[in-house]
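Researcher: Next entry in the queue.
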Amino acid sequence: MPGVVVIGAGPGIGQAVARRFAREGLPVALIARQRPAPDLGSITLAADSTDESALRTALDKVVAELGTPDVMVYNAAKIAADRIGDLSLREQLDAWAVNVGGAITAAAHLAPAMTANGGGSFLITGGMPETKPAYVSLSLGKAGVRALVSLLDQTYGEEGLHAATVTVYGPVAPGTAFDPDAIAEEYWALHRQPRDQWIHEVHYTGAV
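Model: Structure for this entry, 208 residues:
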């Protein structure tokens, strides 16, 4: 049974999403810079989302073992405080590569096969609903995520790919209003949405 791939499967949202989909009986493949614990998924692999060759190789291994996934979740991000002028151009590009570039690589590698199989869900963790001068690279990255979701929808939506972002309005931590397990429910809900009810951005403002 084709399942879900989570890129950026560290503690927090990535692993919570993996657990949520696994509860539904879906095989889960997790990809992170450091290989996640084997008990977290059907397949666990180490790959840096900014290393295009390594990421494509990891995705090929997932497809070889599980088949083309029904769900692709991109959760990698570089979260750091920086103001205009704090980072060099190289550092800004490195942050962009994590926040957006890896998602583009994953989409280019998997979306055509997903649509050939009838479609699926391509879900990206968003944030920074408003730009903040103290978080320049992250503000730019999350704005890029929104643009990428729109582009994915325009490119693959008619072929059945549901592209969406979950925009998280606060710091993620267990036991808080931004508990990762609660946030993970939004990813499952997006995947389960009927096509005529698709939305492309969920605003998670905190658990009530």
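Model: The mean pLDDT is 94.
Researcher: Noted, moving on.
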